[in-house]
Predict the 3D structure of the following.
Amino acid sequence: MSERYGFSLTTFSPSGKLVQIEYALNAVNAGSPAVGIKASNGVVLATEKKSKSLLHDDRTIHKVEPICKNIGLVYSGMGPDYRLLVQKARKLAQEYMLIYEQNVPPTQLVKRVADVMQEYTQSGGVRPFGVSLLICGYDYDEDRPFLYQCDPSGSYFPWKATAIGRNFVNGKTFLEKRYSDQLALEDAVHTAILTLKESFEGQMTEDNIEIGICDKEGFRRLTPAEVKDYLAQIA
Amino acid sequence: MGDDIMSYNGGVALAMKGKECVAIACDKRYGVQNRTIATNFTKIFQYGDHCFVALCGLATDVQTVSERLKFRTNLYELREQRKLKPIVLYNMLTNLLYERRFGPYFVYALVAGLDPKTGETFVYDSDNIGAISDNVNLATVGTASDFIFGLGELFFKPNMNPDELFEATSQALLNGVDRDSASGWGAIVYVIEKDKITLRELKGRQD
């Protein structure tokens, strides 16, 4: 596809905006909410994972995905675009490992993923990704956790806590009140669940939300049983 | 010397471990087969506060590999906003060498370094296509590498202090190069400690 078009489909409007990116952000803001919170000793990612039908087998498709030992992702927006970025991020992490024999630091992976997203706003014949990513990771050199957001434009922002997707404004307001630098990972998980609950329609169960945590040991997705325990604590 | 490309220019280097210190040393000869052209061609390059690489073999490749490695390490430090660790430098170097697996650079490499916070020491060596070694006590490369290795094994003791390490390294190098016509004409020794790096020039037999 991109061989046939030598020109970019993302072009400037007279006001200086790239409307395709604005529209991509609209796609993100219509997507299901995702939350990320950085605690003193780790990061938590959480997202709503509602299925459209009771017939869906929820437990086989995941939104929270590991990229390498110390980094995980979640998104808001278009699922298929996300899948592609996950594959690219995993490959980038392994390429780094081949050259340096080190786990890629979160900052470095974010730069590389964001560069991929930027490429799709300037290359011929392609459209921007319709996702915003929340990337969490642990940097072993600096010995601290990181949380980043990557947008369709290719910009990335480091966050202490943030929400993306539907009702993200309310989510961020909620987090601004609840966030503190002394938060431990356990508390951060609770806060993340409460933040999701603000925009959640219906009953929250371990099957319709997904949580991932990243600490010094690495990144992992919580099992439904563990999610159930956290939900029971806030009920 | 004959046709052997690895002994066309000559030269030798050695790295040895001590207690919270490492030494890396090389000779200074630059020759073309049996003709000595210069006596100031050192083969040790610094890539970080406490990371050193020694490259022995074809002189043009010694220069090119050291420069290309510098290119990569400069970009690494700019991108990652941090200094190189010895193990990372070693992996970058072996990756660089393996990229030319089927048309290789004619250099054998040594990487020596120290972690300034923990005092952990690192000495690694590599062949010209990037075969990695373990973190060893002693490593040598170059035309007189076997001679220096024998002497190094003899003089090495575990947990030497910087002065003992300097003596062991210097004696192994100086006496080893005397057995090789393609190496010698002076030497330099770096002793790398947590808080300082000492460079000493050795005057050996000028032949």
User: Anything to note?
Assistant: Residues 16-50+59-233 of chain A form a domain with the Glutamine Phosphoribosylpyrophosphate, subunit 1, domain 1 fold (CATH 3.60.20.10).
